[in-house]
Amino acid sequence: MFGLMSSPMASQKREKLITSLPPQLRRHLKIRAFEHGLDIQDATEHAIQAWYEVEDVPEVDTTGAKTWGTFLPSGEPDRFKSTCSERGVTYVQGLAQALTLWLEEHPSPSAPLVAQPVVRVIVANQKGGVGKTFISSGIAQALAESGRRVLIVDYDPQGHLTAELGFEDLMYEDGVETLMMHMDGTAKGDVRELLVSLGGERFGDRLHLLPASDDAFLRDVALSKVSFSEAALERALEPLEDDYDVIIIDGPPSLGLNMDTALYYVRRRDGELADRSGVITPVWANKASHRAFRLLKTQMDDLCRKGRIQVDYLGLVINAYDSRRGKLVQENREQWEKSSSPSVLAVIGDLKEGREAADGEIPLLEYAPDSEHAQVMRDLAKELAV
Ligand SMILES: Nc1ncnc2c1ncn2[C@@H]1O[C@H](COP(=O)(O)OP(=O)(O)OP(=O)(O)O)[C@@H](O)[C@H]1O
Ligand SMILES: [Mg+2]
Description:
Blueprint: E1 14-21, H1 23-35, H2 40-53, E2 66-73, H3 76-87, H4 91-105, E3 119-123, H5 132-145, E4 150-154, H6 160-164, H7 179-184, E5 196-197, E6 207-210, H8 219-223, H9 232-237, E7 246-250, H10 257-265, E8 278-283, H11 287-307, E9 313-321, H12 327-338, E10 344-349, H13 352-359, H14 364-367, H15 372-382
Parallel strand pairs: 3-7, 3-8, 4-6, 4-7, 8-9, 9-10
Antiparallel strand pairs: 1-2, 5-6
Bound molecules: adenosine-5'-triphosphate and magnesium ion.
């Protein structure tokens, strides 16, 4: 996504510096580097060089820092580490100081040219059962709890999300219009009529669901008859966008036209900042997940190339992680964390509250607001630029 300009530094031999960064700082760095036409690694290198020249840098809050790595010219990681030791700061603190200084000295070149549109996110992986529904629902709840207006779209024909939130009956209603009808243009009514509001004091009527319907299984076939089918979901959801800060799509466990419409919908729009809208992919720490991710990436790259669009990877979430499952699992996690793109936004343990909430058809943040699972969702929600 980045690396639009190749710098002369790119040809030098580089060494990896692995440390941690707080999520917000990482996101600001990514966006600001992009705005200045710089690689993240070049921006980081400049930041560290400038930090060497400044004494008494104020301490930066690094809570929530997560593993992060970048490549620096040969010898630089060692120089950075010894400077940190001389100054009596941790590597995390040193890097956070350097990047904070860099951000202060490199303000956004201009205010965005257009008002920033609603944030559109799909939680996607064609692999089944990896936690798409669990994560899209959890992030949506956490964002609503923090005051955002959130629409969550059950875009999986199986309708698990709809059922887990207690609205299964809506999927089989006769004589009502459906999302598919709004996608193929046969609906007469307002798409708002499809929405339901999730109760619960902590959501304050800010969390709405667009439920699945039983015609969704035929969506791929139906879409093949629609002209400009990639834009079908966009046509259906556009009238709702002004009502929300963020729209989250719970993706299907399949690739195909249905998935293409969702990927197309979350593309970066003209004038939209990078890494606001895009794709979050839950993965497991195993080999099959790596294969599945490569397949998803191929599909995305293909759609982007053919459609002349850009879809941003917002990051991966390693889900249902249990280090007791042995060395292979741990190595696998490290493998995800070491590859620089997309970054790992969170590691979620295998915990019982998520399952219990789903079985009981109660939103997780209502069922177990103080649980580790709920907290993980709040942290993950902070990764989004909403
Ligand atoms: N971190 C976790 N800890 C415990 N249970 C989890 C966790 N993540 C997901 N689950 C449970 O695992 C099951 C599968 O998760 P989920 O339905 O979110 O996956 P999915 O990717 O949406 O599946 P599908 O492809 O069928 O849509 C659910 O019962 C869910 O409650
Ligand atoms: Mg699901």
